[in-house]
Design brief:
With 219 residues, this protein is mostly helical. Helix content is 73%, strand content 0%. The chain contains nine helices and no strands.
C-alpha cells in the first residue's frame, strides 16, 4: 500500500521524511511548497502526479511496487529523474564527503587509521563515478533512442551500496587513534546520506527503470 497519494499534504510528507528534499527537487519541486496536497502542488508545477507519487513511494517504502511501470512511465521522465540524481551525487554529495574527509585528515594528525578509510572510500568513489559514466554514455542514450536490443544495465550501484555500508561499519567498529570528533561525525553523516540515497534509488532503478528496459527488449 502506498504511503502517499494525491490527497496527502506534500509539506507533511517532507517533514516526516527529510530525505525526500533532494528527491522532490529532482522531480521539479523546490522548497516552499505551501500547504497544498500532492495533486495540487504537482498540477501547479506541471508535473505528472502519478510519476511523482510512484517515485517518492518507491523511494520511501521497501514494500511498494508501482503498478505497470513499463506502461505508465515515459522513458524521458525516468531518464531525466535519474540524470538529475546522478548529477546530485557527482556535484553535491561526493564533493561534500571529499571536503569533510580532507578536513578530518588535516586536523587529526597521523595517529589513526583514517587514511586507510579514505583509501577505501576513494576506491568506492571511482566505482560510483564509473557507474555514472556508464549511465550517461551508454544506458541513457540507448533508452532515449528507444533501442530495442540488449541494453546494458549495470549492477555497479548495488556494489557501491554494499561498499558504503562497509565504510560506515569500518568507522563504527574499527576506527582507531586520535581524531577530530566533529569532523569525523560530519564524514559519517555525509556517507550515511549517500548510502541511504543510493539504496533507495536502487529500488527505483529496479522497480521503475528495469521494467521499462525489459519492455523495450521484448518489443
Amino acid at each position: 500500500m502506498a504511503l502517499y497519494n494525491r490527497e496527502s499534504r506534500l509539506s507533511e510528507a517532507i517533514m516526516s521524511h527529510p530525505s525526500l528534499i533532494p528527491v522532490v527537487n529532482r522531480l521539479g519541486i523546490r522548497l516552499g511548497v505551501g500547504d497544498g496536497n500532492i495533486g495540487e502542488v504537482c498540477s501547479g508545477c506541471g508535473i505528472d502526479s502519478d510519476f511523482f507519487l510512484s517515485v517518492i513511494n518507491t523511494f520511501l517504502d521497501e514494500e511498494y511496487f508501482p503498478a505497470n511501470a513499463s506502461g505508465t512511465f515515459s522513458i524521458a521522465k525516468t531518464v531525466d529523474y535519474l540524470r538529475k540524481t546522478n548529477n546530485f551525487y557527482l556535484m553535491v554529495q561526493l564533493p561534500n564527503i571529499d571536503r569533510h574527509f580532507a578536513s578530518l585528515i588535516e586536523r587529526s594528525g597521523v595517529d589513526n587509521n583514517i587514511e586507510l578509510l579514505r583509501k577505501f572510500y576513494q576506491d568506492m568513489r571511482s566505482q560510483l563515478t564509473e557507474c555514472l559514466r556508464h549511465d550517461e554514455e551508454v544506458l541513457f542514450p540507448a533508452l532515449v533512442d528507444g533501442v530495442s536490443g540488449k541494453i546494458e544495465f549495470t549492477s555497479g550501484y548495488y556494489e557501491v551500496e554494499e561498499k558504503l555500508h562497509d565504510l560506515l561499519y569500518f568507522f563504527v567498529e574499527h576506527l582507531t587513534g586520535k581524531y577530530d570528533l566533529n569532523l569525523c561525525t560530519a564524514v559519517v553523516t555525509a556517507v550515511f546520506s549517500l548510502e541511504k540515497d543510493i539504496c533507495q534509488n536502487n529500488r527505483i532503478r529496479n522497480r521503475i527503470l528495469l521494467p521499462i528496459i525489459e519492455s523495450l527488449q521484448t518489443s
